[in-house]
Write a structure and sequence with these properties.
By secondary structure, the chain is α/β, with parallel strands linked by helices. The N terminus is likely disordered.
């Protein structure tokens, strides 16, 4: 059963009308979010709940003994999550604002059997727009044109039309589907691989199959878009042997997690082929060390894990969380429940 089909009923709480007695909140997205705005939204959903702020290190100035819900922000890593969980004996449910939950599903969280939900659907639009912006920029030679401008050189460059290309999606969750939807306006062929899936058509995409079809996708795609979760099974999936099967001149775009890629093999594939280039928004080590060779490669675009960012994501994050708080209060199934076994 996929995570989209899972349901969990973890409420109602013992507070007023089923509200949780206490909710722990770590810095949600950037650390600059307005806590007052979040507080009013949350208390509108569950009046009477006590809100306790938790640092990115998992520390709080007051007791967490009554906490039933943890709103886990972007920077609260596994050790800090365990610190909060260990001090919260009544904790039932963790909501991760990020879609990736590899930093949440610690052995302690799994052992406690805690319900975990995530930010599925919140980041689909900005990340898909980032992907299309990069594809357009590469096809129309924007990096080279900007360099020519800096050199004050008048040299027209030939573009590629997206309608003549094949876009390969590795992962067909919300982000992959939104990329396919936006791309459809330009008319490319869109192919995909989906975990444990038979070949066929989904929302205008040609699904080649499961992970066993990755070599075929690499060989056919002009742009390869990584939009799959990081799990034990997917870590390092973009290996040296797989990169060797990429279509010559193709570009790899990673808007998922850095650990999906063997970065040393990627550097070789960028230097010696077959890749024409890469757009990387996620890395094994973040921030990317200033000594990384990726910064210096002319055919590699490096961005600081920013593809998700837009002015609308905090509002959507609170929409998802507050909707689930109302469900918790009413004893209804929560949305966007993570399969703790599958890891997404």
């Amino acid at each position: 059963m996929g995570p989209e089909n899972l349901a969990a009923i973890v409420g109602p709480g013992p507070g007023p009308d089923g509200s949780p007695v206490a909710i722990a909140i770590s810095p949600v997205l950037t650390g600059r979010d307005s806590f007052d705005d979040m507080r009013s939204r949350i208390l509108e959903a569950v009046p009477g709940a006590r809100l306790i702020t938790v640092s990115n290190e998992g520390l709080a100035d007051e007791s967490l003994a009554e906490v039933e819900v943890l709103l886990r922000g972007w920077a609260l890593g596994g050790e800090a999550v365990d610190r909060v969980v260990g001090r919260s004996p009544k904790l039932r449910w963790i909501h991760s604002v990020s879609v990736g939950v590899e930093g949440v599903l610690t052995s302690i969280v799994r052992a406690r059997g805690l319900t975990v939900t995530n930010g599925r659907s919140v980041f689909d639009k900005p990340i898909a727009e980032y992907v299309m912006a990069m594809i357009l920029a590469i096809c129309h030679r924007l990096p080279q044109l900007l360099e020519l401008q800096r050199e004050r050189s008048w040299q027209p460059l030939e573009a590629r039309e997206i309608s003549s290309l094949t876009i390969g999606l590795v992962g067909v969750g919300g982000i992959g589907r939104e990329v396919a939807r936006l791309a459809s306006a330009f008319g490319p062929r869109v192919i995909a691989v989906k975990r444990h899936h038979e070949a066929g058509q989904i929302d205008g995409m040609t699904v080649l199959g499961g992970v066993e079809a990755l070599p075929e996708l690499m060989a056919q795609s002009d742009f390869i878009v990584l939009a799959l979760p990081l799990t034990v099974e997917t870590e390092g999936v973009i290996s040296e042997s797989l990169l060797a099967q990429a279509k010559r001149g193709s570009w790899l775009i990673n808007v998922a997690r850095g650990a999906l890629i063997d970065e040393l093999a990627l550097s070789r594939a960028l230097r010696d082929g077959p890749l024409g280039g890469a757009v990387l928004d996620a890395f094994r080590q973040e921030p990317l060390p200033d000594g990384s060779a990726l910064y210096r490669m002319s055919n590699c675009i490096v961005t600081p894990h920013t593809s998700w960012s837009s002015g609308a994501v905090l509002g959507r994050t609170l929409d998802v969380f507050c909707d689930n708080l109302r469900r918790y209060k009413a004893g209804e199934p929560l949305r966007f429940v993570v399969d703790n076994g599958a890891g997404y």
